[in-house]
Fold this sequence. Notes:
There is one protein chain. This protein is of the alpha/beta class. The chain has two domains: 9-105 and 254-285, Leucine Dehydrogenase, chain A, domain 1 (Rossmann fold); 108-249, NAD(P)-binding Rossmann-like Domain (Rossmann fold, 3-Layer(aba) Sandwich). Helix content is 43%, strand content 20%. The chain has eleven helices and twelve strands. The protein has helices spanning 17-33, 48-57, 71-75, 83-88, 107-117, 134-146, 159-172, 184-193, 236-243, 251-267, 273-285; strands at residues 9-14, 38-43, 61-66, 80-81, 93-97, 100-104, 126-130, 151-156, 177-181, 196-199, 224-227, 247-249. Helix 1 (17-33) packs antiparallel against helix 11 (273-285) and helix 5 crosses helix 10 (251-267).
Amino acid sequence: MRTISPNTQLCAVMGNPVGHSLSPAIHNAGYAALDLDFVYLACRVEDVAAALGGVRALGNFRGLSVTIPHKIEAMRHVDEVAEVDRAIGSINTVVHEGDKLIGFGTDGPGALKALADAGVAVEGRRILMLGAGGAARAIGFTLAWKAAPAELTLLDIHAEMLRGLAADLRAGSATPIVDAVLAPDTLAEAMARAEVVIHCTPIGMHPKVGASLVPAGLFRPEQAVFDIVYTPLETKLLADARARGCRVIPGVEMFLNQAVLQFEYFTGAPAPAAVMRRVLMEQLSR
């Protein structure tokens, strides 16, 4: 078992049980690869304010990964939040810098890097995003602020949440925003226009493995299709898109990228991304 000294830099994840199993493995593998005196733990947290108070009190507590259901609450108890993340309304990373707690979001930048690494250009292109929840907010604002798409179309079955995200994006960016309640006709129309499709709902993961929001016949070979679901590694949506000749980006790329960014925030060192990828794929294959 790893010995933790008073000088060991502590990092932790609080929230979603899936993140609890994956994040410690990949972060600790990265620390070991660079011979860093860091350790990353999983913590059950009920009182977010008290937990962040503990981070302030412990001089060697370097930071936190924050997952569902604490991403919004955590933002209320830190000292600084990046402007784009304040617009998004949530954070997934807290870094302890001196006497301050600084909040960041890495989901949006992780998604944008996944697209770039796959050779998918976003600037000047028509983007369709399926879903309007927390992940969609993070990705939508990152695209609107940093990638200059020609148009961002949002579809979701939850009309109130959809309208809220669309209104926030219109108020907070210059990107043209189109929104419509998800239905067979609105989906078909949006798919006919979209050059890049980003799926941000839980459809396709347990317990809805084998399901997809998009009928296979709506995909076009010239489209790029990104599914942020990472378990299973290839969802039905991606399999259908691949079969139709689309360029596909699996959700594991976003998950890895956001973890790499967190690692670099915590340590100040370039992350050993290849090591972290290997361990992540080993964990997901179990």
